[in-house]
Known about the structure:
By secondary structure, the protein is an alpha/beta fold. It has two domains: about 5-125, Response regulator (Rossmann fold), CATH 3.40.50.2300; about 125-235, CATH 2.40.50.1020. The chain contains seven helices and 17 strands. It has helices at about 10-20, 35-40, 60-70, 90-95, 105-125, 170-175, 215-240, and strands spanning about 5, 30, 50-55, 55, 60, 75-80, 100, 125-130, 135-140, 145-150, 150-155, 160-165, 180-185, 185-190, 195, 200-205, 210. A five-stranded parallel sheet has the order 2-1-3-6-7. A five-stranded antiparallel sheet has the order 12-11-10-14-13. A hairpin with a 2-residue loop joins strand 4 (about 55) and strand 5 (about 60). The chain is globular. It starts with a strand and ends with a helix. Residues about 235-240 have low confidence and may be disordered.
Amino acid sequence: MRIAICDDDMREHEQFEMALSGLDFSPKAENYTSGAELLEAAKKAPPFDMVFLDIYMPGENGINIAESLREISPETGIVFVTVSREHALEAFSLHAIHYLLKPVTTEGIAETIRRFMKLRKENRQSITLTAGTDRYTVFLDRICLLESDNHSVNVSLADGQKIKVSMSFGELEKKMNENFLKINRGIIVNMDYIAQMRTDVCVLQSGIRLPIAIRRKAAVRAAYDSYVFERLSRRGKFGGD
Length: 241
């Protein structure tokens, strides 16, 4: 689980780490002192699972940072942390998981994680992959690339792991959702992990460059443009009016 805390006060980071250490399991948090640092880190894969975000920081507004984070990583769970409930309504218009008052406690974090896992269980699609004698249950949003390899498929995950699946490419293709785009024979990418879509090449956030089939250029471009438009529209809905 990738967790981040963004707060300009290092004492709050220390308090958060103490509260986090009280959990039965202790995920390590990434610490950021500004929204700019957080948003830059959010562009890297895998995306943050949860971000604990201070609303009041010098020269920055946590609500605005959250809106930008939604655009970069719609699946990240946002938790606002503050000394006041003044912005609670705005926070929940952004579909925030929780709104914690300082000082953050172990109980508050535990409740946040419970809410997060419940939402994930309700909303996330998963698939079971067989690789030899091993079986893996993987969330579709963690798959970034499928590549045909003879009678198998190489499945690349966001954390860098690769699984060679004993399944035909066509069979696995049918199990993907609308986020997946076939750009060439034997190559399917998860559009959530695309950094650039050029005329002939698709560049993933990991730096991998993948060729686009000449005959599929127009269809691939149209599908990706539609995906980007839908994502921007979703951002507007999250932001509320």
